[in-house]
Amino acid sequence: MGLTFDLALVETTMLAGVRLVAFLVVSPPFHLSSFPGPVKVALGLGIAVAAGPRVEAAAMQLPGAMLASSGPMFFAALVLQAVIGLALGFIVRLVFAAVQTAGSLIDLFGGFELAQAFDPVSGSQGSVFSKFYYMAALALLFASDAYQVVIGGVVRSFEVVPLGMGLDLDGLAALMTSGLTGLMVSALQIAGPLLVVLFLADVGLGLLTRVAPALNAFALGFPLKILITLVLGSVAFLALPQVIAALTDRAFGAMTGGGR
Question: What is the dihedral of CA 165, 170, 174, 175, to 10 degrees?
Fold first, then answer.
């Protein structure tokens, strides 16, 4: 009994698998250390096998497209796909980092920044609202099936950057710049109303101290700001599902070069 393999399809699947595995290593919610490495590799290769014919068709539509046929060329193509996957994953991570950055801003203005602790999930230092918003965002990614949109975006990226096409460094730099700008803008949009209230609370305490220094109003500063942060931060948390939906659409558009 003989078995025959379509070498072009096998090659395409391997190249696509490298891009997908590199993407899953960096992109949320799959970048967590709680996802074992073999699971990421198996998931990436499984998606590559399912999307193999579509990826090959997109590559063949590229004018002058030619997949690597020799050992050195194939190795160079593998490295290129790994770089593209890491770049796409980093762009998606920048988009969703806006939620954690918003939590960090709330911690900074609300006084929770003094209570930092190591977060074993993200592998970094974080405060109360930073970790809370981060974990809530990851939970919403799974609960709302937004992770499927992220996976769909990276599969659609094979139509924007097909196999056999070189890396556009100018376009990548523009995506990184816009992603970093969008990160700060989104973080301020999420945490902005609460930051304004905390700032006005500081101003009010300062004016009260100037009017009646004997009251020592700043002694009430920490308890008052903590109370405001807990109350209004919980109210702002209710808008997080809509925020995650908007960030998912933005991540999808960044990977596909446009809309759905």
Answer: 20
Is it true that the peptide bond before 162 is cis, omega within 30 degrees of 0?
no
Encode 57-90: b = buried (16+ Cβ within 10 Å), e = exposed: ebbeeeeeeebbeeeeeeeebbebbbebbbbbbb
Task: Give pLDDT tens digits for 137-169.
Answer: 888 888 888 888 888 888 888 887 777 776 777
For residue 8, name the pLDDT band (cuts at 50, 70, 90): low
Contact 47, 22 (CB under 8 A): no
**What one-letter code names the amino acid at 88?**
L
The answer to whether the CB of 104 falls within 8 A of the CB of 127 is yes
pLDDT band at 190 (very low <50, low <70, confident <90, very high): confident
User: Which DSSP state fits 66?
Assistant: -
Cα separation of the two ends of the chain: 45
